[in-house]
């Protein structure tokens, strides 16, 4: 068993000139393609017993966090449409004002003592996850003149194989900053790029409580045939 | 349906940094009481200018001392690099892992590196110097000999192994497409 390589154009390059931080951090030598071994096809069991869930980011130690409360829900599937059961999903984000609760974030937007911006949930038997948070704000960064990151939530996922490990970002529909963002636009395939944009979803929306967004995530699928016997 | 695109972890990923996770043998952790050779893995991540990467996320995934992934040992750790680009894990030395057919892979630890400026993780492996099985490990054998050393940790103090990682430039680490 091994995991299929990603479809062409769906993954960003290491060297993306429009995103300045890649300049000194991308390898110049080609990656060495290896046949997957047990090391790549197995993965840690990230259980709730070891890593406690935290599904409500919108409630701080004192009171409700500032900003627009939202619910985000979706399914984690593999490329064959099989749900990943019990998959650990970590999320982190800026607060409603566009400021991270992080010592290196020097943006002069206000911090919110009731918003840490870190959550952890696990998928159910059908691959569903769900959490409540605050809609993050856009924030400036130094990549180029007048550069602003579109509103986003960071995601970290563990699948059933080391080769499925994924860190990505979820964006919001209709964000005018999306066409200007080099990180979003470094994904060559437009359809793949647009799958990083969540959809407003009235079924996820909870009456008198919070708007809902749907964001599904697909991890690499399994190869039907074993890979060639090369290392 | 194709796999979701990767995006950078960015500079503020430390909201999911839990320093205890870098110690796989932590008291009250998943591996308390499992026997094996206790080791410390250290290294430093530098960029194409040789400057430290102080904002990287390093994860390890490894087999247990018997070379098993499906046993009680929880072989996962996460560590943030410090101001000098350094990382440090405490763990048990993995055993040889079953490879193709009846062969065995040399003891190794898989590493993933995420950071600002990395739109996808970089994956590499840490092997142990002087390990007899290194000679017949199929992945090490597929690396050009001149670059093989970038995957081989060297012993420092007792039980401490060092593998520095260079993202770019002279002695660039061999990164793997898995």
From TrEMBL, chain A:
Keywords: Dioxygenase, Oxidoreductase
Region Disordered, annotated ranges: 1-27
Pfam families named among the record's database cross-references: Dioxygenase_C, PCDO_beta_N
UniProt biased composition (Pro residues): 1-15
GO MF, one example: protocatechuate 3,4-dioxygenase activity
Protein origin, superkingdom: Bacteria
All residue ranges annotated as the Intradiol ring-cleavage dioxygenases domain in the record: 72-100
InterPro entries attached to this UniProt entry: Intradiol_dOase_C, Intradiol_dOase_core, Intradiol_RC_Dioxygenase, PCDO_beta_N, Protocat_dOase_b
Enzyme class (EC, first level): oxidoreductase
The protein's Enzyme Commission number: 1.13.11.3
Record-stated family: Belongs to the intradiol ring-cleavage dioxygenase family.
Name of protein: Protocatechuate 3,4-dioxygenase subunit beta
The species this protein was found in: Paeniroseomonas aquatica
Gene name tied to this protein: pcaH
Automatic annotation (TrEMBL), chain B:
InterPro entries, per the entry: Intradiol_dOase_C, Intradiol_dOase_core, Intradiol_RC_Dioxygenase, Protocat_dOase_a
One Pfam match: Dioxygenase_C
A Gene Ontology molecular function term of the record: protocatechuate 3,4-dioxygenase activity
Protein name as annotated: Protocatechuate 3,4-dioxygenase subunit alpha
Enzyme Commission identifier(s): 1.13.11.3
UniProt superkingdom: Bacteria
Alphabetized UniProt keyword annotations: Dioxygenase, Oxidoreductase
Gene this chain is encoded by: pcaG
EC category: oxidoreductase
Keyword Plastid: no
Gene3D superfamilies noted in UniProt: Aromatic compound dioxygenase
Domain Intradiol ring-cleavage dioxygenases intervals: 35-156
Family named by the database record: Belongs to the intradiol ring-cleavage dioxygenase family.
Oxidoreductase listed as a keyword: yes
């Amino acid at each position: 068993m091994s995991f299929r390589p990603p479809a062409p154009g769906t993954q960003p390059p290491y060297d993306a000139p429009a995103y300045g931080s890649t300049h000194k951090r991308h390898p110049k030598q080609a990656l060495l393609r290896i046949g997957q071994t047990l090391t790549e096809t197995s993965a840690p069991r990230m259980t709730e017993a070891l890593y406690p869930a935290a599904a409500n980011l919108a409630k701080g130690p004192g009171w409700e966090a500032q900003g627009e409360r939202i619910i985000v829900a979706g399914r984690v599937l593999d490329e064959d449409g099989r749900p990943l059961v019990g998959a650990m999903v970590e999320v982190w984000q800026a607060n409603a004002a566009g400021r991270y609760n992080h010592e290196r974030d020097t943006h002069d937007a206000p911090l919110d003592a009731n918003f840490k911006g870190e959550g952890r949930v696990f998928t159910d038997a059908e691959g569903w996850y769900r959490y409540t948070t605050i809609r993050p704000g856009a924030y400036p960064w130094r990549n180029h003149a007048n550069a602003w990151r579109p509103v986003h939530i960071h995601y970290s996922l563990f699948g059933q194989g080391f080769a499925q490990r994924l860190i990505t970002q979820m964006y919001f529909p209709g964000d005018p900053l999306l066409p200007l963002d080099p990180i979003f636009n470094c994904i060559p395939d437009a359809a793949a790029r647009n799958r990083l944009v969540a959809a407003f979803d009235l079924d996820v929306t909870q009456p008198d409580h919070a708007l809902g967004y749907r964001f599904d995530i697909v991890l690499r699928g399994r190869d039907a045939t074993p890979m060639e016997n090369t290392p | 349906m194709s796999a979701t695109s990767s995006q950078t972890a960015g500079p503020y990923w430390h909201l999911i940094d839990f320093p205890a996770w870098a110690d796989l043998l932590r008291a009250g952790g998943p591996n308390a009481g499992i026997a094996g050779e206790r080791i410390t893995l250290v290294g430093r991540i530098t960029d194409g200018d040789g400057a430290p990467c102080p904002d990287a996320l390093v994860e390890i995934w490894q087999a247990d001392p018997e070379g098993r992934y499906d046993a009680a040992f929880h072989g996962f750790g996460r560590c943030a690099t410090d101001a000098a680009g350094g990382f440090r894990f405490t763990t048990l030395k993995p055993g040889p892992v079953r490879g193709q057919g009846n062969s065995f892979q040399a003891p190794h630890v898989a590493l993933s590196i995420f950071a600002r400026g990395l739109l996808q993780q970089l994956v590499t492996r840490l092997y142990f110097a002087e390990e007899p099985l290194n000679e017949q490990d199929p992945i090490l054998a597929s690396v050009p000999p001149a670059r093989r050393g970038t995957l081989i940790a060297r012993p420092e103090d007792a039980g401490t192994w060092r593998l520095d990682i260079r993202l770019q430039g002279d002695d660039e680490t061999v990164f793997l497409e898995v």
